[in-house]
Amino acid sequence: MKEITSLQNATIKETKKLLKPKYREQTGDYLIEGEHLIQEALKEALNFEKIFVTEKFIANHETFELLKASTDVFLVSEQVMKSLSSLPTPQGIAGVLQQQEKPLQFPLEGPLLILDRVQDPGNVGTMIRTADAAGYAGVVLGEGCADIYSGKVQRSLQGSHFHLPVVQKKLETFLPFLKENGIQLLGTALDEEAKIYTEFTPEKNFALIMGNEGQGVAQQFLQLTDRNLYIPIHGQAESLNVAVAAGILMYGLKGKILQKY
Amino acid sequence: MKEITSLQNATIKETKKLLKPKYREQTGDYLIEGEHLIQEALKEALNFEKIFVTEKFIANHETFELLKASTDVFLVSEQVMKSLSSLPTPQGIAGVLQQQEKPLQFPLEGPLLILDRVQDPGNVGTMIRTADAAGYAGVVLGEGCADIYSGKVQRSLQGSHFHLPVVQKKLETFLPFLKENGIQLLGTALDEEAKIYTEFTPEKNFALIMGNEGQGVAQQFLQLTDRNLYIPIHGQAESLNVAVAAGILMYGLKGKILQKY
């Protein structure tokens, strides 16, 4: 294991750049940190380009597996670890992975979640995690969504992008493609023809579109949907957080499918 | 309208302290910022102790109502506004309010949400907002929850604490009190006797307990519940975000009640 204690080390300077979106895009790499995420990647037998650990982490953990997971494992000082972390208190382990999209498999083996310009990293990560939990076949991110390889999205994702396909598509062409392939498109909106989600049973293969935090799903996409759904507001709140709304709809619709098919 | 351009101004120095929990507790005051939250407070006819606005905000908004809402309205520079804000880009308006709990009304006019040591400010705020949307009668925070008067909770709350009672209680005594008053206590857990939430119909007056992000609901409280519920995981995610889980359960149980009663 090589040791690095200097912030000026070339490997560290290079890796630190991955905290910035531009450099992630250029290199196709990204950083994950914390024991849980690293373990999730190891379960998938992913190869790390580099792994960084602190002495304290090694002292408290079984690290045999880590040493096999990358040819480049670096022992770094607390200060160096801090420079690689997007957290106020780094967790003592970080790794560099290649960005990899699991491809969507057709015919679909479950419903899809589609995000239209969801901007908050926590919302994007949480929605993917919920899609994973609810047994969805994949998540599609249209343009203008938060970058799933950012530290914040990775933290709320909790490794779900290792479990199910999370792919980026232009919705202008991808939604018509889904329709042509017999996938029922469900929007979320409060228009006159929208239906309360509990009073609606979807077809087995459907795609649910959730929209931007302030503006909802874009009109041009709502016009393509087979049906728009909404969640009734019983109290005085004006709306629900979009990740909560997605959870209610994903589980609600999944429940209908489990009952019927 | 008085004008303040100096960061050294005594009113500003005093108000800035409200960004810290300790000072909020000492004074019983708190800061809210942004047009939406201020409007929500105005709807409730709350009296602001102080209001701070920037010239830019005044130029772009109808501010007549604001001038009535407080005897102390201050025109402040962008720099001064920034010093009062917990946001990277302040929204040009902030106000000081007294912390006020709407009391819970018995008999309850709907279900309760109870939080046991939910620590993330975004989760606490989002759960209260969802309880508001789902028509719950109130939210009870046990010890160890995030401070609802912090900037982060206020942002995710979106004014819901103006709509429904959000009260702090010691759960050790409050849960037995609810039981004695015939409120059905529902926990969330994965024990052997726990039931899938979709297969359970609650009584009309129930209280749903959601727990800490990592540890769930404390054992001592789970032992007091009439029934524990869980959300099935169909995919590979280990768990759901607690605010999403709360949304699924709150709407799921509310739906059962609407069907039955």
UniProtKB/TrEMBL annotation, chains A, B:
SUPFAM superfamilies registered for this protein in UniProt: alpha/beta knot, L30e-like
Keyword Transcription regulation attributed: no
Report the source organism. Answer: Vagococcus elongatus
Q: Which PANTHER family match?
A: RRNA METHYLTRANSFERASE 3, RRNA METHYLTRANSFERASE 3, MITOCHONDRIAL
| Name listed for the protein in its UniProt record | 23S rRNA methyltransferase
Q: Which InterPro entries match?
A: Alpha/beta_knot_MTases, MRM3-like_sub_bind, Ribosomal_eL30-like_sf, rRNA_Methyltransferase, SpoU_MeTrfase, SpoU_subst-bd, tRNA_m1G_MTases_N
**A single GO molecular function term of this UniProt record:** RNA binding
Which keywords belong to this entry?
Answer: Methyltransferase, Transferase
What SMART domains does the database record attribute to this sequence?
Answer: SpoU_sub_bind
Tell me which Gene Ontology terms the entry assigns under biological process: methylation; RNA processing
Q: Does the keyword Methyltransferase apply?
A: yes
- The RNA 2-O ribose methyltransferase substrate binding domain sits at 31-103
Can you tell me which family this protein belongs to? Belongs to the class IV-like SAM-binding methyltransferase superfamily. RNA methyltransferase TrmH family.
One GO cellular component, as annotated = cytoplasm
Q: Which domain of life is it from?
A: Bacteria
